Amino acid sequence: MTKRALVLAGGGIAGIAWETGVLRGIADEAPDTARALLGAEILVGTSAGSTVAAQIGSGLGIEALYDRQLVTTSAEIDPGVSIETITGVFLAAMSDPDANVTKKTITEKLRRIGEIALSTPTVAEDVRRAVIEQRLPSHEWPDRDLRVTAIDTAKGELVTFDRSSGVSLVDAVAASCAVPGVWPPVTIGPRRFMDGGVGSTVNMGVAADCDAAVALVPSGRSSPSPFGSGAVAEVDGFAAPTFGIFADDEALAAFGPNPLDPACRVPSAEAGRAQGRRVAADVAGFFSGLQ
Predict the structure, then answer these.
(1) Beta strand 191-195 with 186-188: parallel, antiparallel or unpaired?
(2) This model's pTM is above 0.85
(3) Is 153 in a helix, a strand, or coil?
(4) Which of 140, 202, 216, 260 could form a disulfide with 12 if both were Cys (CB 3.0 to 4.6 A apart)?
């Protein structure tokens, strides 16, 4: 039996809406394919993708999950932070003011981003946690293989939470979605965690034990990456057969200038649904080729 993974990448509020929309659009055109995706043996969620993965794991159908993205009001908070501000956090972490210092490793850069995240004033942790609680139809880990990524701010290392980690699902998703410089790092025991997408928006390696994967990535194939070669190379170079769905031009336009702005939610969901309909036959073909 083929062990399949559905890998859901980071991309802000726009990413949550778009990924949900893509899955809804695939269900419109190819219901069996959508059932295979939603029933994947492994769910991997990073940042925005952790929300979508947890929502899928709740057992609520994709139609209802999509409808939740279209409501005119929500508990989402506008952080009032621009993409330029977030970019500044990454640039500050990657700069070496002393030319004689050896070039920083990725882990060192992630630790520096963690330091900035810890020192940046944001809303209180409990305020942000309440937003995550509202996003999730269920606050309990599902009885399936759901993997949620985050970064340890002190170590600069990727961690993966699952139902055996002893961490609540809400805290795991909150940690994975804690964008540095925007939202507070999440306290779990003596440690603090930030967004799982800081080092990689997709974290394909977390699904290394799968036989095939479909990855939903709410960014363009040409989008730059602060570390490594980016999501495209990670998806395309994955060891197992992989089908990557990246945001197309229509979706990118729907995201607008700030994917963290709650106002982008509805247009992003609708653009995702339209794209899902367009790619449904290709995804179905990918699955057929695995048999």
Answers:
(1) antiparallel
(2) yes
(3) coil
(4) 260
